[in-house]
Amino acid sequence: MFFFKFAEMPTQNQFHANVFACKNVGVEISVKELGAMSKLFCETWMQAFATLWNTDPEITNALYEQCFNANIGYGLTEARHPIGVLIIVQGKVKSAGLYQGQPLDWDVRASLEDWENWLDKGLGLAKMGMMVIHKKLQFQTGDAHKILRTPRLATAFLRSFDLMSQVNKS
Question: What average pLDDT does range 18-28 have in this prediction?
Fold first, then answer.
């Protein structure tokens, strides 16, 4: 199994299997095509993202105040299913890993090129709104407009992109 409780660490064999796990969730892009992005949303990437999330008071406090609980999937628009998932309880990540068919409250998708661009250059509120309107950032499950209309959720969502950009740098 590739879905671990947040505190567990994958073994070396599980790490290598995760690099190729994207195919298992319906993404037909080879690791060679993905290049440096091949680990995006895979097990170790999601766990690093969870660590950053849980140690960031800006996101955890904002979501705690909103009594935010959600299963959030992340992936590519061309895939049948998301690649990674975070299970959020009261604003904190309780578990992070590969998507294994969990019910999702939010399913956030974009092309590999767009993810790469946002993780490199960031995503502000105005840009996020434009990306949603132009379907570059897609919510296959969940209400994107609710995020845009709720300042604390919008701030936390944008902060999550800042944290994502730090994963590849840590």
Answer: 42
